[in-house]
Automatic annotation (TrEMBL):
Top-level taxonomy: Bacteria, Pseudomonadati, Pseudomonadota, Alphaproteobacteria, Sphingomonadales
CDD domains named among the record's database cross-references: PBP2_CrgA_like
UniProt organism field: Sphingomonas quercus
Top-level taxon: Bacteria
Record has Acetylation as a keyword: no
HTH lysR-type domain location: 1-58
Name recorded for this polypeptide: LysR family transcriptional regulator
Family: Belongs to the LysR transcriptional regulatory family.
Length: 290
């Protein structure tokens, strides 16, 4: 029985079918089907019931999935113990936010360069990614981490400031105090609360505006076009400031830094490839504010 056949079956089970598993693995559907058939023949049991609407796990498949996943995890752990300083191998799947994908791209490329035997697959999207359901080993998240069952490691932080375009300021003035925000239009990522501090006190405001987006660069462009004030990380707003499209405003007050996290699904065994990635990203981003 081939360990890769077991891994492939776990992928099929978790992905909900052969087509989805093939896309995750970057393999042809025919290869996944052939490996699954070989595994079923060796076990003498049907693991997947094929229907006109797709495929579902049989009772035997449901039972075998956890056993196969446990076997794969134990083999991975044994390999790591035998060669703790050796090359990373296999496949590492990483999810990340599209808004700041280019910010992390050099670090991820460097990681792949350091470990040529490791396949690195990334997906950058501003939509929420379910790590376990979609088969990702870990994800990079930027923001204020909500309560969840994910295990998060903070690797750095991003300074936040308030900005507006010169044209907006000419037409509407600039807020000077947190309470002034309610007199202005804001561009935000959905429902947002901004918490300002002057060193002694904190002030929470709920900005209102007609333009919302789930992508940081879209928000920056909207603010640069004069659609409202914007709370944004300096790494994204910086080029707009340099180009004269945005200017910092209300500089007497500060916003809390936004955290950069690597998150993973809970579990006792953390693959060494994930640990090494976290260490590398921490090395690059935790030396100070990005």
């Amino acid at each position: 029985m081939e360990i890769e056949d077991l891994r492939m079956f776990v992928e099929v089970a978790d992905a909900g079918g052969i087509n989805s598993a093939a896309r995750r693995l970057g393999l042809a559907k025919s290869i996944v089907s052939r490996r699954l058939l070989r595994l079923e023949q060796e076990l003498g049991a049907e693991l997947l019931a094929r229907t006109t609407r797709g495929a579902v796990l049989t009772e035997a498949g449901i039972s075998f999935r956890d056993q196969a996943a446990d076997i794969c995890a134990k083999i991975d752990a044994a390999r790591e113990e035998m060669s703790p300083n050796g090359d990373l191998r296999g496949l590492l799947r990483i999810a990340g936010p599209a808004s700041v994908g280019t910010f992390f791209a050099p670090a991820l490329a460097d990681f792949a360069r350091r470990y040529p035997a490791l396949n690195v697959h990334t997906r950058f999207s501003d939509q929420y990614v379910d790590l376990a359901a979609e088969g990702f080993d870990c994800a990079i998240r930027v923001g204020y981490m909500p309560d969840s069952n994910l295990i998060a490691r903070k690797i750095g932080s991003l300074p936040m400031r308030l900005y507006a375009s010169p044209d907006y300021i000419v037409a509407n003035g600039a807020p000077e105090y947190p309470g002034d925000i309610l007199k202005h239009s804001a561009v935000t990522a959905g429902t947002a609360s901004w918490v300002f501090s002057d060193g002694d006190q904190s002030f929470t405001v709920h900005p209102q505006g007609r333009f919302k987006a789930d992508n940081a660069y879209v928000l920056a462009e909207a603010a640069a076009a004069g659609l409202g004030v914007l709370a944004m990380g300096e790494m994204i707003a910086g080029p707009y400031v340099d180009a004269g499209k945005l200017v910092p405003i209300m500089t007497g007050f500060t916003l809390p830094d936004v955290g950069i996290f690597v998150v993973r699904a809970p579990g006792q065994h953390v693959p060494r490839k994930v640990r090494v990635l976290i260490d590398l990203l921490t090395e690059k981003f935790s030396s100070g504010r990005c």
